[in-house]
Write a structure and sequence with these properties.
Elements (H helix, E strand, L loop, with lengths): L1 H22 L14 H8 L13 H8 L1 H9 L13 H10 L7 H11 L6 H13 L3 H14 L4 H13 L3 H13 L5 H13 L3 H14 L4 H13 L3 H14 L4 H13 L3 H13 L5 H13 L3 H14 L6 H12 L3 H15 L5 H17 L5 H13 L4 H13 L3 H12 L5 H14 L3 H14 L3 H16 L1
Helix pairs in contact: 1-2, 1-9, 1-13, 5-6, 6-7, 7-8, 8-9, 9-10, 10-11, 11-12, 11-13, 12-13, 13-14, 14-15, 15-16, 16-17, 17-18, 17-19, 18-19, 18-20, 19-20, 19-21, 20-21, 21-22, 21-23, 22-23, 23-24, 24-25, 25-26, 26-27
């Protein structure tokens, strides 16, 4: 889910830059950015954006300024609706006409010329034009101040509010961006991009209900826009509206079947819908696309374990090792232990063997001990509780006297070997370790009960109950107390 969120953020940043470049010059005759496939949009974000390139080197911008239709609109199309657009005087039209030729290939010159001819009480159209020139040079702070001047002069200037919103959202000032876009909507000027970026701003603040509403309006106006559909999907997912998310993802995956992040989001959606095998199917698709991660494969393995498909689980965990052989050892070790806890000892050994194969020569001593403990635990689970297993555990304890796992396994080993005195020795050592104290005291008490020392066992059980109350231990303590009274 986070990966998809980052992808949407990158796409939105590129979109804002493109919109500002277009809107700064007038938005009726400039082509809006298309809803291109996500891969193309992402690739575009790695290149210099329209906002950071000089217009002199951008043939699209030069062509736009040379377009006769645009020129006519730029110098003469203002003031048609005095409620939403400032009027310009004939003198100000002349100023715009004098500046227009410079805007195709000399933005600094256009900015200087326009500033020189602007008066403090000039039409807000001139301020709006100056803001667009400043933005195209990536002078965002100057552009922001200029657009603010434009709306101060003419509070119902919709396009100026729109560009203010775009700059604020691009800079991560979402509250101010929301306020600017909301003002534009109040003025009756919203379009699909404004609604979409408003949704993005709300979602960035984790306010998903208004974000959902904004994205739905954006999709109503631009149903083919992938960014808005993905943003809406994330919003409904965050609100746990999983059925809505699944429907939206069906459309996304039909359009982009090779997008692993969409398959992953759908897998998470199916998990939210309590349909784990459908989620597993999506995660397998990700693997077939060659886009699996350690996280996705462990999630796949966990699903298979929960469904008692233990061979498939082992296969997923082994693939997770292969994806990143240098990952921290704790996770694949835990996977093997989970399999062992479900009685899948051969499958657990398969994971352990793969770990040894890919990491055996590079394991530091601490991780080597963890693998040795896993081997010992699996051997004990198989009933192969041999002297060799005990020797391995003794070596681990010699290297690390505070290894609680090894101490507990040695104690259990000697209990099964009917040598309670040795077992008690290791239980007592484990009792000094906070994380193992409860289980060590219970095991110690059980060893004492086996020797008929009921009175000695009771304080150990009472202390264990104080630390971590358990119903089964409470019942066992009652039985021991009865035996103690009877003897």
């Amino acid at each position: 889910m986070d990966h998809a969120c980052k992808k949407l953020g990158s796409l939105t940043a590129a979109l804002i830059a493109a919109l500002l470049a277009a809107c700064s010059t007038g938005d009726k005759h400039v082509a809006a950015p298309s809803a291109a496939p996500v891969a193309d949009a992402v690739a575009a974000t790695a290149q210099p954006s329209a906002s950071t390139r000089s217009s002199a080197t951008d043939p699209d911008v030069a062509a736009m300024w040379a377009d006769p239709t645009f020129q006519k609109q730029f110098v003469g199309g203002y003031g048609i609706n005095s409620d939403i657009e400032p009027r310009v005087t004939p003198e100000e039209v002349a100023v715009l006409e004098s500046v227009r030729p410079l805007m195709a290939d000399d933005l600094p010159g256009a900015e200087a010329s326009l500033k020189e001819q602007m008066k403090p009480d000039c039409s807000a159209i001139l301020d709006f034009t100056l803001g667009g020139i400043q933005f195209q040079q990536d002078h965002l702070d100057d552009a922001l101040a200029t657009y603010q001047t434009a709306v101060a002069k003419f509070p119902s200037f919709r396009r100026a509010w729109r560009n203010l919103g775009l700059i604020h959202v691009r800079a991560g000032r979402y509250d101010q961006g929301i306020a600017a876009f909301t003002r534009m909507i109040e003025l009756g000027g919203a379009d699909g991009y404004v609604y979409g970026l408003l949704g993005y701003a709300y979602a960035s603040q984790q306010d998903y209900q208004p974000a959902e509403a904004a994205y739905r309006n954006a999709l109503l106006l631009q149903p083919e826009n992938t960014e808005w559909r993905l943003g809406l999907t994330q919003c409904v997912f965050r609100q746990e509206k999983f059925e809505d998310a699944a429907t939206l993802l069906d459309a996304l995956l039909e359009r982009y079947p090779d997008k692993s992040e969409f398959w992953l989001l759908q897998a998470q959606t199916f998990l939210g819908m309590k349909e784990p095998l459908k989620a597993a199917s999506d995660l397998e698709v990700i693997d077939q696309l060659g886009k699996s991660t350690v996280d996705s494969l462990h999630t796949l393995g966990d699903i298979y374990v929960s469904e008692e498909l233990l061979d498939l689980a082992a296969g997923a965990y082994v693939r997770a090792v292969d994806v990143d052989p240098n990952q921290p050892l704790a996770r694949p070790l835990h996977a093997a232990e989970v399999l062992a806890a479900h009685g899948a000892i051969p499958q657990a050994r398969k994971v352990a063997a793969r770990l040894k194969e890919v990491r055996g020569d590079t394991l530091p001593d601490s991780e080597r001990r963890q693998l040795l403990k896993l081997d010992a635990r699996l051997s004990m689970a198989e009933g192969a509780d041999s002297d060799e297993t005990a020797a391995v555990l003794d070596e681990i304890v010699r290297l690390d006297p505070l290894d609680g796992d090894a101490l507990m396994m040695l104690a259990r080993h000697w209990s099964r070997q009917n040598q309670p005195d040795k077992a008690i020795l290791y239980y007592e050592r484990a009792e000094s370790l906070e994380a193992f104290e409860v289980n060590a005291r219970i095991g110690h008490a059980q060893a004492l009960v086996g020797l008929g020392r009921y009175a000695d066992a009771m304080p150990l059980l009472r202390r264990a109950q104080e630390l971590r109350p358990r119903d089964d231990v409470a019942r066992y303590l009652e039985q021991v107390e009865r035996f103690a009274k009877a003897h």
